[in-house]
Amino acid sequence: MNPRSSQKLLDSYSSLTCQPIRTYKELLEFVENPPSWRSLCVELKPHSTYVIKNVEIHNNPANFSNSSKSRFYCHFDTEEQQVQVKHHEEQKVAKTLVCHDMANGYHDDSYIDGTVNYDAYNFYNWGGIDVFCYFSHHFVTVPPLCWINVAHMHGVKVIGTVITEWKAGAAFWESVLSAESEWRRFASALLAVAKCLRLDGWLLNVENEISRPDALLAFVKELAQLQRAQNCPMAGCLFAFFDACDGIFTNYSWKEADVRASAEEAGARLRDVYIGIDVWGRNFYGGGKFNTKQAIEVAHRYGCSLAIFAPAWTHEDLPTKVDDNIVQRYSEFLVRDRALWGSLWPYLNTKLPCHLPFRTNFCRGQGLKRRLYGEVLCPGPWYNMRHMQYQPNSAHGPHEYELVSKLVKIEEVSAQCKDDKENKEEKQKETWTLSVSLVMIPEERPCYELCLNDSFTGGSCLRVNPSPEGECVSLLFQCDFRWRHALLVCVVTKVGPIDIWLYSRGSLGERRYVLAEASRVTAGLSLPGTEQLAPLEGSALIDARRQLLLEEPDSYVPQHNAYGWTIRYYALDANAEEMALTRVGCSSIEGPALLGYLGFSEIQLSFFSPCERGGEGGEKPIMDRPCARAHRCVRLSQTKNLLNNVNLQWREQNAITPSFKTRPYDMEMPSARDCPMGDLRVAPRHRRSREAYSTDCMLRGDSGGAGSAPD
């Protein structure tokens, strides 16, 4: 639905909304009385300090299956060893900023409780960007809650916009810069807003004359502690502003010589120069749109960072057809969006999630229905980007489309650009220009595609399509998850079998794990270091689920499902060394299948009996210690309604007493006859701090054989 046509519908909702700050007076009022939704804002989630340069993957044909080398970087051959991808320090590579500008902002995304317009625009290529800027032409653009939280979940910084334009902008700065106390007050107000909403800085966009540039420079220095970018061309005296802030966002009307000059001027701060990239292509190098790649190639060549402006063009500029329906239009948007970002992806860097537990149901914060474990909770369409889950951080090949280049007469391009007569006459001096158009290939299907017709939890899931090339793996995540004990993996699928491929690295080199259904044997097992794992069953499954409830209850998924979903658990042993999970892929050869959930948790499992290294004198597995204590990790505040199902075992020398059940905050102890020492400790694992748990309790039995939890 077009955002302008839906505005009246949105205005009728009686829900909380995120609004811009239109005047300086409103800014000061915001500081005094901030919005109630500020309590929902989340902090930036740290990611790995290393990134992957996508260009190093895409330029190495040894990584891909033979038949896909000529097209794109999506299919990995299961029978060949992939080249190890180099990790680069994040502080030494160029960055990517996305500046969201869609019809002046604040549409469906501004409603805290969401809307019913499931086809509203959302952004999901978070793995390839570093900074997200929400832009509008209001005085102070405050990013809506959904953008703050989703970006921070993906490790992306979020900045708002301060913009002044025309005569009104000149008058504002004339007043604010007239006295030091005034511009310090303005800077303090912006800092207060950023702290209140957990923003990471501001984009300062001054599009008017400034009579006191020295005072403006002092104001910029006052904001130096925030992440921000300055919207002006980098040349001459403006270098002082670049030196005073964290980055500079150039304009779009540049030539290659301008990029070269800015790169030379920046010196050691080259990565802080963000070259403006206008996807709409307004008076812009290469014309933008599906040819945006041409301009990005120039910035990439000189090592500059990117500032991609208005990528929502793929949604906002959808061609209108008489017989269009919502489903068809949204499907067309998805193809256009994949085509744009697929062409840009080789020039970006991939951020690596690194913290366990990690879980996602792949929901994009929208759907035709809303479900929990497959059961329909809301039968109608919905949109709320705040409920987006972690998205795949790998782009895939041009299945279902192809970008075709052709030379066209410049008069045709001028008419499309709708420039004024003077610019049109100037451009008509050129004879030809390059135009890139999207051609649909309806018989092809992408490796992964959004499925809105079903979901495990949320409004959507991933449809994993089989490769026409046979046994191939499509990359899902690049990551850097470290673990030393057991890695428990939960996979939820439907319709057909899906194999999950895990690539790990340890002191003994690389290993590949194939998580397949118990009855299947997967190709690719002949490679050294490759192992196929079957789902956990019986007592091992019970032990793993119980331990997951105790250690990571938020990652627990019920085993039985009445809605056709299959829940499988797998366990990977680290053998007492630190392992790193670096890549996750999927394959399906029997037909389209649905992937509804994927989760990774590090826990201790008794059937692996992990030992600390140290030779014969090393620590023994817990259940083999000749002591009267069994250690378990319990978060009482999170599991008090689950403790009825917890079984604790007691060991005195070589005698094991029968297991006993506990009640919330009233843990019955075995009698002194069964356990003479009468001592049970419920405490965190040695690798976690006590502060990570809300309650630690020591239970001590007496001659009566009973004990109680502390208050």
Task: Please describe what this structure looks like.
- The chain has 711 residues and is an alpha+beta fold.
- The protein folds into four domains: 7-63 and 88-351, TIM Barrel (Alpha-Beta Barrel), CATH 3.20.20.80; 403-440, no CATH class; 449-608, Jelly Rolls (Sandwich); 625-700, no CATH class.
- It has 16 helices and 37 strands.
- An eight-stranded parallel beta barrel has the order 4-5-7-8-9-10-11-12, surrounded by five helices.
- The radius of gyration is 28 Å and the shape is globular.
- The relative contact order is 0.10.
Number of helices: 16
What CATH architecture label of the largest domain applies? Answer: Alpha-Beta Barrel
Shape type: globular
The top level CATH class name of the largest domain:
Alpha Beta
Characterize the largest beta sheet: strand count, sense, and whether it forms a barrel: 8 strands, parallel, barrel
What is the name of the CATH superfamily of the largest domain?
Glycosidases
Strand order of the largest sheet: 4-5-7-8-9-10-11-12
Percentage of residues assigned to helices: 10-25%
Average pLDDT score: 79
β-strand percent reads 25-35%
| End-to-end C-alpha gap | 56 Å
Oligomer: single chain
**CATH topology (level 3) name of the largest domain:** TIM Barrel
Tell me the total number of β-strands: 37
| Class by SSE composition | alpha+beta
The gyration radius over C-alpha positions equals 28 Å
